[in-house]
Amino acid sequence: MAWTASLCLLKFALIILYGRIFVSGTGRRHAIWIQSAAFTAVGGLLMGSIIYYLTACTPVSASWTGLGKCKAPQAGWLGTGISNLITDVIIFSVPIVWVVDLQMSLHNKIVVSTQLFIGAIVSIISFTRIFFVLKVVPSNVTGTVVRADIFSCIELNMAIVFASLSGIAGREAISNFVHRFIVPRTNRSYGEVYRPSGDANI
């Protein structure tokens, strides 16, 4: 449950970040709806996980004492993993709608899009974790859940790292790569603020 709660809190932070970045134009007009949907999805994942883990064993203490009856954990892990992957895809892909609408050079659009999609790596790790969850044998959970647990730890830590890099250290490195191999920079500075195409008079 701690793993799910940590990832959900990170996703809440990213949703709020997107809301603060895209503050005008068409993107802003749709921001409230998109943020609400994302918050609902992540909140549902968090609440569903809490309810599942609180009701998986009777009594609850049986989950750590072994004295009682518990449901097979694989179904819960699989449901949580798939829901987590879906919310990953939504959160890391939605901002492209705003990026396309921004008045900036092609170079800067590629840089910003790359930053926002850097979290796709986390989704790949999440998918790998689901694969190993499917390999868990109910009769030998302790011995077969090790790889799934390893990827759970990797996913959480990489999510934190990539979310941080997408807004701080990674920006200049991505910009230099795009400038050298894809599209050169224009005279506009990278840090310049641009309004979406529909906001020329604002």
In short:
With 202 residues, the chain is mainly alpha-helical. The chain has helices at residues 2-21, 25-55, 62-65, 73-93, 96-101, 106-117, 120-134, 141-144, 146-165, 170-181; strands at residues 57-58, 69-70.
Low-confidence parts, pLDDT < 50 over ≥5 residues? 189-202
Which term fits the overall shape?
A: elongated
Estimate what percentage of residues fall within beta strands. under 5%
Q: Strand order within the widest sheet?
A: 1-2
Q: Major sheet: size, sense and barrel closure?
A: 2 strands, antiparallel
| Average residue-wise pLDDT | 77
Number of strands: 2
- Name the helicity range: over 70%
Total DSSP helices? 10
Reading the helices and strands in chain order gives: HHEHEHHHHHHH
Computed structural class: mainly alpha
Q: N- to C-terminal separation? A: 46 Å
* Radius of gyration (Å): 20 Å
Descriptive account of the structure:
72% of the residues lie in helices and 2% in strands. With 202 residues, it is mainly alpha-helical. It has helices at 2-21, 25-55, 62-65, 73-93, 96-101, 106-117, 120-134, 141-144, 146-165, 170-181; strands spanning 57-58, 69-70. The protein has a two-stranded antiparallel sheet. Helix 2 runs antiparallel to helix 4 and helix 7 runs antiparallel to helix 9 (146-165).
